[in-house]
From TrEMBL:
Species whose genome carries this gene: Pseudoxanthobacter soli DSM 19599
Protein name: Lipoprotein-releasing system permease protein
Domain MacB-like periplasmic core, residue spans: 47-260
GO cellular component: a single term: plasma membrane protein complex
A UniProt-annotated Pfam family: MacB_PCD
Lineage: Bacteria, Pseudomonadati, Pseudomonadota, Alphaproteobacteria, Hyphomicrobiales
Length: 431
């Protein structure tokens, strides 16, 4: 028993507890700048700034890309519908029974018959091409994107108004206000012995709307369906039926029911096909931007490697003394892991805070920069939207934060391993 007690008393010390206060204290001293370690602290500072800016930029850019996609989708689908039903033979006259059957499908919000055609619209300030769509007032009231964005006039009594509702940008370009007449010209006029004569007719402006998407606000004209049928020579016929679903992603599930409800040879086109090129381009741009901006975080992580490597070389004597005092290789390894990980963690946290703040105030920031530079950032004629949107996705934000933390942690492993492998004799040889 005495022998066992003696052997227990001579047991080899196991060092300090992992991630103890001693290890955090040493790592904290290594992070603080001293006169002869200024260059190393500068590298650590640049690493911190790189990770902070990289994380903030990733969060901001991804939020803006998501905002663009969501805003464009809500506006495009808010007018054009989720499924377009058109006749194969070009004539769609017996359409009301089809509309009624479509509206009885569970999952269909409503079905809107419409007449559509291209026309030249002119006013005191010029003439422009326009997309004229003839609809019923009850259908316009079901479209919040139109009914809730009327800036002048009213849609009450639209079916009996014999007038048109035009986009705010188009009205401004034409130089017309509420009650002023606009002239519409369509090449599909009446046939005469001398050929087809273009049809010209004047309509008063009964309402102006502003959706917030420049492409629609500068080209769309809504007209009562009866007037549109007469203007485009479609007596008792329509161009097609727009079907609005409760959930745009239910197209595959409801497609067969819509085809059966049509009851005749009709051509169905959903929003994914009609806007596939546009949304695919947005998705590709979003993924490419994520890959490019991730390089900023990667470069900052490489700066952590270089800074810690130089710190290990500079602290060779201190490491040797710690080893001779009983510090284990694990202790040295954890000290430098804490040192490098602290830079990455604090930089990631700062980048997260900055990114969330900028996303929350993205539109005032855009306006402020435009005012300072006397330029128009993100002009709506090019980017379709009148305001800069930002929609933060929690999953993407967590992905960015985790990626930055993982890269920062991996960057610390090699320098920390080199420090742990340092021979105390070599560290003190030239002292």
């Amino acid at each position: 028993m005495a022998a066992k007690a003696g052997s227990a008393g001579k047991a080899r010390p196991r060092g300090v507890r992992p991630f103890s206060a001693l290890e955090w204290t040493i790592a904290g001293r290594y992070l603080r700048s001293r006169r002869r370690e200024t260059f190393i602290s500068v590298i650590a500072g640049f690493s911190f700034l790189g990770i902070m800016l990289g994380v903030a930029t990733l969060i901001i850019v991804m939020a803006v890309m998501n905002g663009f996609r969501n805003e464009l989708m809500s506006k495009i689908l808010g007018i054009n519908g989720h499924v377009l039903v058109q006749p194969i033979n070009g004539t769609f006259d017996n359409y009301m029974p089809v509309v009624e059957r479509l509206q009885k499908i569970h999952g269909v919000r409503f079905a809107m018959p419409f007449v559509e055609g291209q026309a030249l619209i002119s006013g005191p300030s010029g003439a422009y091409g326009a997309l004229v769509r003839g609809v019923r007032q009850q259908d316009l009231d079901r479209l919040p994107l139109i009914a809730s964005t009327v800036r002048a006039g009213t849609l009450n009594g639209f079916d009996r108004s014999n007038g048109v509702a035009v986009g705010g940008r188009l009205a401004m370009a034409l130089g017309v206000a509420l009650g002023d007449p606009v002239t519409l010209v369509t090449p599909k006029g009446e046939a005469t012995p001398f050929g087809v004569v273009p049809r010209t007719q004047a309509f008063p402006v009964v309402a102006t709307f502003e959706i917030g998407m420049s492409e629609f606000d500068s080209s769309f004209v809504f007209m009562p369906m009866a007037e549109a049928q007469a203007f485009f020579n479609k007596e008792n016929a329509i161009t097609g039926i727009e079907v609005y679903l409760n959930d745009p992603d239910d197209i595959d599930r409801l497609r067969s029911e819509i085809e059966q409800a049509a009851g005749q040879a009709l051509y169905l086109t959903d929003w994914r096909i009609r806007q596939s090129t546009f949304f695919s381009a947005l998705e590709v741009e979003r993924n490419v931007m994520f890959m490019i901006l991730t390089l900023i975080v990667l470069v900052a992580a490489l700066n952590i490697i270089s800074g810690l490597t130089m710190l290990v070389k500079d602290k060779g004597r201190d490491i040797a003394i710690l080893r001779t005092m009983g510090a284990t290789r694990g202790t040295i390894l954890r000290v430098f892991v804490i040192t490098g990980a602290a830079i990455g963690t604090v930089g990631t946290a700062a980048g997260l805070v900055i990114g969330l703040i900028v996303c929350h105030y993205i539109e005032p920031i855009r306006q402020g920069v435009s005012w300072l530079t006397r330029t128009q950032l993100f002009p709506p004629e090019l980017y379709y939207l009148s305001q800069l949107p930002a929609d933060i996705d929690s999953g993407e934000t967590v992905t960015v934060v985790v990626m930055a933390l993982v890269l920062s942690f991996l960057a610390t492993l090699y320098p920390a391993w080199k420090a742990a492998r340092l021979d105390p004799v070599e560290g003190l040889r030239h002292e």
